[in-house]
Amino acid sequence: MAAVDVPYHLVKACRGIIFAARGSDIHSFNSSFEHISTWKYPSAKGETQSEAQSSPAPEGPPAKRRKLEEGEEPASNGREASSANVNGQGKPKGWQDSNPALETPWIQGLYITSDGHHVVAITNSDKTIWVFEHDGAGNLKQLSQRPMPKRPCALAIMPDDRVLLSADKFGDVYALPLTPSDHLPIPSQHTLISRSVTPGTPSTTGGSTPIPRLKADETVVHTKRNLKALENQKKAALERKQPIAQDNRPQFEHALLLGHVSMLTAICVAQATSPVDGKTRTYILTGDRDEHIRVSRGALAQAHVIEGFCMGHEEFVSRLCMVKPASGQGNDVLVSGGGDDDLYSWDLVHNKLVGKAPLLPRVQEVVGEEANKLAVTRIVAQKDEKGSWVWVICERVPALFRYQLQEDSTLRHSETIKIPGNPLDVAILGTSSSTRLLVAMEPSEQGFSSLLVVEKASEGETDWKQTPVPNLPEGSAPGGVKIGAEELRKILYTTESLRKLTDFD
Amino acid sequence: MGNAKQNKQSQKNGDSAKAKRDRRQKREEYRAAMKQEGVAELPRKKFYRQRAHANPFSDHRLVYPPHPDMMDWSVLYPDYAVDEPKEDTPAPAQESSEQSVQEGQQETSPESQSQSIVSLNPRKLSKQVEVADIGCGFGGLLVALAPLMPDTLILGLEIRVSVTQFVEDRIKALRLKHKDTQAYRNVGVLRANTMKFLPNFFHKGQLTKIFICFPDPHFKARKHKQRIVSTTLNSEYAYVMRPGGVVYTITDVLDLHEWMVQHFTAHPSFERVSEEEVENDPCVGVMKTETEEGKKVERNKGNKYVALFRRLPDPEW
Fold first, then answer.
1. Range 117-136 of B in CB contact (< 8 A) with A
2. What is the domain range of residue A364?
3. A276 vs B: CB within 8 A
4. Is residue A367 situated within a structural domain?
5. Where residue A362 sits, what CATH number does that domain have?
6. For residue B301, which residues of chain A lie inside 8 Å, CB to CB?
7. What are the φ and ψ backbone dihedral angles of A425, each rounded to 5 degrees?
8. How many domains would you assign to chain A?
9. Which helix (H) or strand (E) holds B32?
């Protein structure tokens, strides 16, 4: 297996500062790509554990039994942990490889508050949300480290920059104060109970858990075998005496806002003005693997109220993006993409599909006619004097697709820019006068930089200038090690695996 | 327990394989006979048995409309259609492409429905479904509710294919049997995973009653997340219900009853219906006595725990 450098896989830009994640590290640069600082995932022994090898590839349905991690209480007794080991379902082959590049959790998401004062990251296998203070000059100070009950898939930051929304693989959305010292503006009676909080204690009664009561009794089970099982359970309960109930909820302030019975893939906060009463409201949009886009109230105490669903996708949803109309008049348009052949645009307030823009033919122009499906991995909005644009990238397709938002809120393909590698992330750099993008990619040739600037130098030009970013900090691969090409792709390309298998029973 | 089970299985392997083949053959012959038009005989359960649990997190091979506007209800309630069948419109049903290949397999949807419930241009009905029985099982409640609410469209939803087929055959036979009175035209059944796809079938505020009768208790703590009632899922029940609508729950498992009460009362969109009101609700009696599970619990002298929850109007925002 060929060993390759770990590429940059996440990029974000904010007021002249660029943050780029590579494996488990976050680097910052100034606008001329001079390295400013690096945050490394803490490597202290005991803090991170061997479980970190577990592949971040989506494991299918969220309910799957998975290997317990250290520091997590075994759910009731040791048996579960061992049986899960034996099962080991869903683990890709070779996951036990002890490559140091795989031992540390990777950065899975990178976010910046609108005021630029904070950077938020999620790391995959340890399910942790990290918050950093940003001094405005590219230096990060770690403020908090909060391990979530289930693996976060995507984050959103509320418009006030005070609350984080974490959407997880289990389907739940949690609100957390950005800084742990802050409090959530939600009265406690509005907090829902997660299905994943499994201990036998009802969380509302709090405290007193005398003897574990068996869930079933003789009036409920009747068959010989079930009665026998019940008797055994009773015996076991008597021997155990200790209540089995324990609380695996996080100890920091958090509130469950809403949940799907499906893996969440995208979350986005939007504001829209109602044509009926002229009031501007905040919405929480959540996209899932089962084709749904749910529109919930963004008033946090009312996030349990579903205002509607944007129904129409026929494959998984993987990305949601709010796009400003070119005129500046009217509500932002929701653009969604995933495993479908088209990009969808929506009128958020009425949950109405406005139009579909074909994407598959554009993909075929790049990778060949034989491509019959695609997986959207990024949708990024960009607005300038000439209009409102949407940049789209797809998994394993070495190109950037640019669409223009039309006056009727539909999208029209404007151009395709081929690049020398598979794009992993896109960030918009610079101001509205010239278009300048930073692309993180898996270069198709070894030794090629994994950061690429794509720009149109002046307005009259038709060609896009592509410049690899030189002088990246040396040895910044996790642990300074290379990684097998296949192993790397398994980590980087997880979106297509959201698609439902057609031969599945 | 696992070991004993295995031993027993390997011992009986030879015999049981043959018995299984015979059973399957009989089942297929029977089902084929039932498919004939004009069979007024009620289906027999023994040809439709299926294991009691289905994993709601699995993808299954489900057919559902991408949008509730694409659901052709006239397939289920043909007597309520107010326009003529439209010229053949392509039906982009989810997963529908595999239907032909997988015909006859356990996981496919009931044969008679699968090709037509999804349509780009469905026929219109004079009214819409307002009552849903989630996890309707063999359809005891549906059949009992039909004459009780003759002017309301009632839908049973069930995740198990064979069981759904049983209910479909049962409704078909009942309609034929009561040709003169036009009874049972207002009940229908669908194979669906409601935990994931409720909003694919129903519009906002469409339902006035939801029945959740003797749901799978999922005793193990690890399985609680598969329970059909949870605060987060209750948001979807609230979404498809109109304010004032009622969710009916009944179970013989005290622990599950307490769970459902806890999760519904913890949800700001629901309030528990008072004891007095529960007693006066005619649907409660039907739910206690007419569901298959209700009868079984009766025979075994078990307890029945009933709880009703009213959908509250959403607050201003």
1. none
2. 8-40+103-192+250-490
3. no
4. yes
5. 2.130.10.10
6. 219
7. -160, 160
8. 1
9. helix B2-35
Task: Check CB contact of B239 with chain A, cutoff 8 Å.
Answer: yes
pLDDT per residue as tens digits for the range B146-181: 999 999 999 999 999 999 999 999 999 999 999 999
For residue B300, the chain A residues in CB contact (below 8 A) are: 219, 222
Which residue stretches of chain A have pLDDT < 50?
46-97, 198-211, 475-479, 504-505
pLDDT digits (tens, 9 = 90+) for A12-68: 999 999 999 999 999 999 988 999 999 999 975 544 343 333 334 333 333 344 444
Question: Residues B79-89, buried b or exposed e (16+ Cβ, 10 A)?
Answer: ebbeeeeeeee
**For residue B105, is pLDDT > 50?**
no
User: B128-316, what's its fold?
Assistant: Rossmann fold (3.40.50)
Per the CB < 8 Å rule, is B232 touching A305? no
Strands A436-443 and A421-429 turn out to be antiparallel
Token pair recorded at residue B237: 């029940």
The residue assigned the tokens 């693997």 is A289
What is the residue whose two structure tokens read 């390295």? A35
- A305 and B252 within 8 Å at the Cβ level: the answer is no
Whether A313 has its CB under 8 Å from any CB of chain B: the answer is: yes
Whole-model pTM? 0.85
Is B219's CB within 8 Å of A204's CB?
A: no
**What residues of chain A lie within 8 A of the CB of B259, using their CB?**
202
Contact B118, B154 (CB under 8 A): no
Nearest-angstrom CA–CA distance, A176 and A165: 6
| Coil, helix or strand at residue A163 | strand
